[in-house]
Amino acid sequence: MSGSESTHVTSLGKGDSLHQQVLASFPLCDITEDDLTQNPQFCKLLATLAQHVDQSGLTVPLKAELEKAEQKLQSQRRHWLHSESLHKGLQEMIQDHCIRKHHTTVPPDQNMFYETMEKCLLVAQCIRQLDPSSTTNQDQPSVLGLNSQQMMELMPSEKNVKRMKQGLPRELEKHLKKKCLSVLSYYHPECENESEGLRNTKLCHLSAQMDKERKRAESLRETCRENTVLLQRQTQLYLSEMIKCIQLLQSLILDHRLRVQTDLDHKKLKYFEGKCDLVLQKIKYEMVEIQLDTYTVDAISAHKKIREKLDSELKACQVEKQSVESKLASFEILGKEFETLAEEYCRLRKEIEMNNWALKEFTQCNNK
């Protein structure tokens, strides 16, 4: 680090802490005072870097070029706004004239004035659409095969245009004054009942008042931005402290909870066991109560006997099933040859049954 840079870093630390100066020089950086304390070399680097950049992070030469470009842009914007506001004002004058024609009788010379102005605006707009700039390529195809010269032929007579240009400043001044008075009435509604001279005096001070309001709004916007940055920084600090508190609470909760968790689980287990037994007893009680409400004592005893008999028959059937399954298993050991013999045996049994049935039917017919 050079001697001048060291002097600058030392001067930053005077009157206020170096950390606060660095944070003020770089408000958009997501750093805290703890970060600067833990990294002193990085803090010195930022303090030295503050000589060459502004708060937005732009270097001094780039900032100068940006300001120059902004001034040029503002100049071109003012020029464009001047032309655009003039064009809008003329269009508004034409619209007001069209509305006025439908409500009152307009003098012929005034009607001719606005018709001439409207035609001139339309022709100028068409010429601008055909040739919007001096850099337009002349070889490109024109719109509908028209050119600027053909559009100029649609202009009103030179006499009417000259008369319109002579009266245009006066009419435009009236229109703009009317708009300014409407703005003045918006800011000062009480001035509508005042004299024209007093209204003109207030109108002269209206621009200064609006400029003052604009500067006040910009100042409030800058204050709001600074408060936003300060709020973000305080929010980060608050969240970091909250995270530390939460971690401390988690450690305390875990330490205390592990000590009593076993006893608590044991008590909960006993509680749920007792509750389960109680529910089972209640279910049994409800079942007995339903049986008593549905059947008599004799019917219940008869059902018990029927159930016992059915259970005994079920057991006998299960035993028979097991014996049959064991026999089938022993038969399956003999293989496919036994399966063929079993099928042949079944076929012969069916033929025997059919012959017996036929013999029985034949015997009955003979006896008749």
In words, what does this structure look like?
The chain has 368 residues and is mainly α. It folds into four domains: 62-132 and 147-204, no CATH class; 221-294, no CATH class; 297-333; 334-368. Helices cover 82% and strands 0% of the residues.
In summary, what is this structure?
It is built from 12 helices and no strands. The protein is mainly alpha-helical and 368 residues long. Helix 5 (60-103) packs antiparallel against helix 6 and helix 6 packs across helix 8.
Distance between the termini: 140 Å
Task: Quickly count the helices.
Answer: 12
Radius of gyration: 53 Å
Order of helices and strands: HHHHHHHHHHHH
For the sheet with most strands, the description reads: none
Shape: elongated
Structural class: mainly alpha
Poorly predicted parts: 1-16
Helix content: over 70%
| Average predicted confidence as pLDDT | 79
By DSSP, the count of extended strands is 0
Proportion of strand residues: under 5%
Tell me the number of structural domains.
4
What's the topology here?
Layout lengths: L2 H10 L5 H8 L7 H6 L1 H10 L10 H44 L4 H23 L17 H5 L5 H30 L8 H9 L1 H89 L2 H37 L2 H32 L1
State the main characteristics.
368 residues; mainly alpha; 12 helices; 82% helix; elongated; disordered N terminus
